[in-house]
């Protein structure tokens, strides 16, 4: 399902909702996510947290450091 079809289906569903409270919740959710700037979450991290993320990324570049999906499923 592409973006156009999703948008069309969403508009149809919204048009059928009579519950103002539900519509307000959906509106607030969409507006909040639309208004968020890319990188906003990153700006909330400490320098130490950012360093850990960079280190994790660098370590993930080496195949020996990666786990298979089956290993992860079995562990959890």
At a glance:
By secondary structure, the chain is mostly helical. The chain has helices spanning 3-15, 20-35, 40-43, 47-60, 69-75.
Structural write-up:
With 76 residues, the protein is mostly helical. The protein folds into two domains: 3-35; 44-75, no CATH class. 71% of the residues lie in helices and 0% in strands. The protein has helices at 3-15, 20-35, 40-43, 47-60, 69-75. The protein starts with a helix and ends with a helix. The mean pLDDT is 86.
Structural key phrases:
mainly alpha
Topology readout:
Layout: H1 3-15, H2 20-35, H3 40-43, H4 47-60, H5 69-75
Helix content: over 70%
The gross shape turns out to be elongated
* Main β sheet profile: none
Ends distance:
32 Å
The H-and-E topology, N to C, reads as: HHHHH
Mean pLDDT: 86
Class per helix and strand makeup: mainly alpha
Q: What share of residues are in beta strands?
A: under 5%
- What's the assembly state of these chains? single chain
Radius of gyration: 20 Å
- The total tally of domains equals 2
Total strand segments: 0
Low-pLDDT runs: none
What's the helix count?
5
């Amino acid at each position: 399902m592409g973006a156009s079809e999703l948008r069309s289906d969403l508009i149809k569903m919204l048009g059928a909702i009579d519950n103002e409270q539900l519509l307000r919740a959906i509106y607030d959710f969409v507006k909040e996510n639309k208004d968020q700037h890319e990188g906003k979450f990153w700006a909330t991290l400490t320098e130490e947290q950012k360093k850990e993320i960079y280190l994790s990324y660098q370590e993930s570049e080496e195949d020996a450091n990666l786990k298979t999906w089956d290993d992860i499923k079995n562990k959890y």
